[in-house]
Amino acid sequence: MGPFAVAASAVLLASISTSTFAQNADIDCAKPHAPVERAICANAALRSLDARANAYYSMLLEAKPAADNLPYREFRDGLQADEQKWRHDTRDACGPQVSCLSEAYQHRIDDLRTSASEHLGLVSAPAGPTHDAGPAQPAIDYKDAIYRIGESDVTLLGGQHAQPAAPDSSAQEVTRVVEPPEHGAGSLGGRPAVALFLSQDSGGSGTFYYAAVVFPDGRGTTFQIGDRIQPIKIAINGDDLAVTYLDRKPDEPMAVPPTVPRDRHFAYMNDRLVERPQAATAAK
After folding, report:
1. What pLDDT does 48 receive?
2. Is residue 283 within 8 Å of 263, Cβ to Cβ?
3. What are the angstrom distances between the C-alpha of 210 and each of 48, 176, 178, 191, 234?
4. Is residue 129 included in any domain, yes or no?
5. Do the beta carbons of residue 124 and residue 136 sit within 8 Å?
6. What is the model's pTM?
7. Which of 26, 201, 235, 268 is most buried, taking the most CB atoms under 10 A from its CB?
């Protein structure tokens, strides 16, 4: 924690909700001017990203340490200069290109979140009464996170993401958190993690399901489980990710409801979920 860390009550990073982000949005969508502002206001996901980035920026800018000393003032001045440079050189350079803006905001949010954790000593607190159960684990907002699906990063806001299924297509590809079953918590690769199911529907006949894990930095990865399965349970047991679901027999058509129980197990290695060989054999 730096010399200008907050000395009063610690800011509860995990308590910042999507509604709070919306209240702090920097762009006035009632009268957007530049093309980049119009593009952001016309896209719900970009509006949420803009509000999220602005919330972190405001947190850093408005923090009041015990003494408004020179190191803090230098940090604040540098923060303002960095924000102006990012908006001009990175965000505004994207123009109305949604993919460029989304990537720019995601990187900016990562940078601001890291700075907030380093300089403000942000901690997470449990929602209910505390018990003497050992060190508290950081809260993980798995519904507002970035998941690696295939070769793409998908940003979920409020547990959902939607984008055109193909260029110039009116069909939407929708990725969302699947609950029930409830998500599971534990530790993978030496880091706290949340495990959950995601589904992805591209507007056709199939709905693909993924086992997913996400970490306190808001980033996660996935493993495709199957098409139109029925998720039952996902849990982290030690270094093992256990997934239970209902599937079909190999010769059954997709129209048949899934009734065959499957259990599969995964390890987290090199930023990926890797199926354990013995589990892969048993699942066939």
Report:
1. 75
2. yes
3. 24, 10, 10, 21, 11
4. no
5. yes
6. 0.55
7. 268
> Distance between CA 220 and CA 225 in Å, rounded?
16
Amino acid code (one letter) for 93: A
Q: Does 2 fall in a domain?
A: no
Model pLDDT, residue 70: 62
Kind and range of the H or E element at 145?
strand 145-149
Asked if 120 contacts 59 with a C-beta cutoff of 8 angstroms, the reply is yes
- Farthest CA pair distance, the chain: 72
Residue found under tokens 């996935």? 222
Measured CA to CA, the distance from residue 49 to residue 44 in angstroms comes to 9
* Strand-pair partners of 255: none
Residue 276 lies in a domain: yes
Q: Find the domain containing 32 and state its range.
A: 13-120
Instruction: For residue 284, give the 3-state DSSP assignment.
Output: coil
- Do 106 and 150 share a domain, yes or no? no
Q: How far is CA 194 from CA 148, 188, 202, 216, 227, in A?
A: 15, 9, 25, 9, 23
Per-10-residue mean pLDDT for the chain, 284 residues long? 39 36 55 82 80 79 58 81 93 89 88 76 40 51 91 90 83 92 91 95 88 92 96 94 95 92 94 80 45
**Please, how many CA atoms are within 13 Å of residue 223, restricted to the half-sphere of its CB?**
21
Which among 41, 20, 153, 35 is positioned nearest to 93, based on CA atoms?
35
